[in-house]
Design a protein that fits this description.
Length: 154
């Protein structure tokens, strides 16, 4: 798969603050779900080789059927690399019966100082073909907006 989905945003917070929000269970639960969803973290192990299991629930499943059930996406995330405060690499596997959502997607979160803030760039590779690129990039942008609101309020 050659497709790469991306998103980027400058946030008014230091790289260490943003990095910490990427590895804090309650922070992640609050900002990661894109608009129209809420999240629950079912398992949490924030170390290289660890990871988490997240259940994302659609607030209105009639317009966005889930990958794991009618109203949910369940995803297992492994932390492949943690480089404070610059980079987090995640490997994501969706729980889904549909083979269009099979495979392991890699999400790289790069943090770079940008003036008094941080530019956060998310790059997704090996995205399952069942996930539309425009929808995925809109979801990434929504999560980045949530993350910015979260860290800027700190």
């Amino acid at each position: 798969m050659d497709r790469i989905d991306r998103g980027s945003r400058v946030m008014g917070a230091a790289p260490a603050t943003v990095y910490n929000a990427l590895l804090d269970r309650e922070a992640l639960r609050s900002w990661l779900p894109p608009q129209g969803m809420r999240g629950r973290i079912d398992r949490w192990d924030p170390r290289p080789g660890g990871g988490f299991r997240m259940t994302l629930t659609y607030l209105d499943a009639s317009e966005s059927p889930g990958k794991s059930s009618d109203a949910t996406d369940v995803v297992e995330i492994a932390f492949a690399e943690l480089v404070p405060p610059k980079r987090v690499v995640q490997r994501a596997v969706f729980e889904a019966e549909d083979p269009a959502f099979a495979g392991t997607m890699t999400m790289v979160w790069e943090l770079a100082a940008a003036g008094d803030g941080t530019e956060v760039t998310v790059t997704a590779t090996d995205v399952p073909p069942g996930i539309g690129q425009a929808d995925h990039e809109a979801g990434i942008a929504s999560s980045l907006a949530n993350l910015a609101a979260y860290v800027e309020a700190r």
